[in-house]
Amino acid sequence: MKLNYSAIVNLLIILQFLSLDCFSLSQDFDFFYFVQQWPGSYCDTKHSCCYPKSGKPAADFGIHGLWPNYNDGSYPSNCNPDSVFDKSQISDLKSSLEKNWPTLSCPSNDGTKFWTHEWVKHGTCSESELDQREYFEAALKLKDKINLLKILNIAGIKADDGFYELDEIRKAIEEESGVSVGIECNVDSYGNSQLYQIYMCVDTSGSQFIQCPLLPRHRCGSSVQFPKF
Fold this sequence. Notes:
229 residues; alpha+beta; 5-stranded antiparallel β-sheet; two-stranded antiparallel sheet; 7 helices; 7 strands; 34% helix
């Protein structure tokens, strides 16, 4: 069989453009989940935790991530293997990241591994809107906009190992923020359902909280523990 090399070359060119189009599409998304976690619940599991090298974090909600999502419940990940984490781009944000986006993984480290993971898996999928520096800046600014611990404390919900109604926790945050929230719980070694993570939705610019197109499905008890840290 005689090969038509001209046709083969044309086909390869078409496939190259199609792959570029697919990559471009992978950059698109519908909204962000902005996720904050309670360190007391992270540490109060069988996996335990390690404090970062900068010291024990404050008893406050810390950023877990800013995650691009689709309206159908799926999400993109690891969108650009060529976009590696470059800590020099956020060197002046390091102290703020240590305070507001601390790592609790073991062994104790300076947080770079955590931030690298978040950028590579999630941040690279938002590059149509935010470059690396803008991505981390956006998350820090969002945390400044909503003080979850203060909201809960004002509502009489405190990190004192006490148990609180899940509906009251949700109501306090939603009334203050004006948007819907998702709540994720974990279970401690005694089988107690604990307040673990709060999900809020953000527009694709990474700057404004919005009503969630959909909320993640997580199981929590009707009454959950808010552990000390």
